[in-house]
Amino acid sequence: MSLARCIYRDPEFYAENGDCVVLVGDALFKINSADFFGYSAVFRDLFYNRETSDEFLVLLEDAPEDFRDLCRIFQAQPTKLFRIFREASFLRLLSFIMILHKYECWLYADWAKQAIYNRFPLEHRDILASLVAFLLSIVSPIFTRVSDAHLIHNTGGYREQEDDPMTGV
What we know:
This protein is of the alpha/beta class. It has helices at residues 33-37, 41-48, 64-75, 78-87, 90-102, 106-117, 125-139, and strands at residues 8-14, 20-24, 27-31, 56-60, 150-155, 158-161. It has a six-stranded mixed beta sheet. Strand 5 (150-155) and strand 6 form a beta hairpin. The longest helix is centred in the last third of the chain and has 15 residues, at 125-139. The radius of gyration is 17 Å and the shape is elongated. This is BTB domain-containing protein.
């Protein structure tokens, strides 16, 4: 018995005019690569090094909710972004920091860290900074850099996955 995946278009971030389809879990996101290019060193490297200007597909191993948060952060105006960070729970802020760190969105990661620090008295901020640094040191080696992710190029309507030169897969 085979289990078929139920892949769906993300209801919030599937732009018909997007040039990049991102599969995250079972959710398809269609984004404009230019929206990500300026905020993330990882996405900048991925999009800059692609071989075609056609639509392409990226496969990521994140939770759809985390990637959706990343999309919201990248599309938010500064005042809305500060509200997102201010209203988020402590655990959600940690989640923001981890995904922003994973994709090398340093400015936004620093803003999210500051939102955590601002919730606590000044005398506890050193402890919080150590906690955040510790958590990032644990999860950072686990992250797969997106430039190493599976990138599928448009080849005349049929998408073929390029073999990884290291693994042959």
